[in-house]
Amino acid sequence: MNKLLINTPQNVKIEYNLASLGSRIIAFAIDYFIILVYYILIIVILDSFHINMKDSWLFFGILSLLSLPALFYPLVMETAMSGQSIGKKIMKIKVVKIDGTRANFYQYFARWTFSLVDIWMCMGGIAITSIALSKYGQRIGDLSAETSVISLKAKLNLQQTIFEDVPSEKDIIFPQVIKLSDQDANKVKEIYDGAVRRKDYNILLALTQKLENILDVKSTMHPNDFVNQVMKDHYILFRNK
Fold first, then answer.
1. Helix, strand, coil percentages, rounded to 5, for the chain
2. Is residue 6 within 8 Å of residue 69, measured between CB atoms?
3. Which of 152, 60, 44, 38 is nearest to 100 (CA)?
4. What 3-state class would DSSP assign to 52?
5. Which residue spans traverse the membrane (predicted)?
6. Strand pairing partners for 96?
7. Contact call for residues 26 and 91 (beta carbons, < 8 A)
8. pLDDT tens sequence across 53-80
């Protein structure tokens, strides 16, 4: 699977798995099922007010007006939910810039605009072909906006973690990590990944202080190095247990 490799300001390399074509199609199907349900509700409501096909101009005029939320649904949702729609959130995928950072409104707008070309005008044929052939799984809208769609699902393969070349137990710096459960360690990594992804040093500093309190240690290391070391030590200590 292709990946986006991001080098953060803390000089930490993070790999994002690109969203699979299947997950993107399912997310699309979920979103447009929601839109279809919305359309059905509109028609039911109009019918309940006795606005029907007998007065076709009035019916289609009101229907067109009430259809605007459905038309702008992808753009509004991705803008409001930082690159996700309901379908994308369910499938745990997200639109980001090609450098891994958060996309902006203009990029969401470009993706939405070009969806008329690569999705609707050819029943998704161009979009699917472009996603399959491009290096970063980009449809025409992504290429124009310089975005891609990544998977937020956790991957536990050692090659994708900071523990790739971990030595033996004698290299543990903080044996106090025995106080952390697997659930605690996973939460630490989740918070750490979020801090790096958002480039938020305050979160990283708060995480460091919290770990120092739990482990009853006082580190002189840089917060980024300290959190990495704690995660490494926990892995070494518990990898064979």
1. 60, 10, 30
2. no
3. 152
4. coil
5. 25-45, 57-76, 112-133
6. 148
7. yes
8. 566 676 677 777 888 888 899 999 999 9
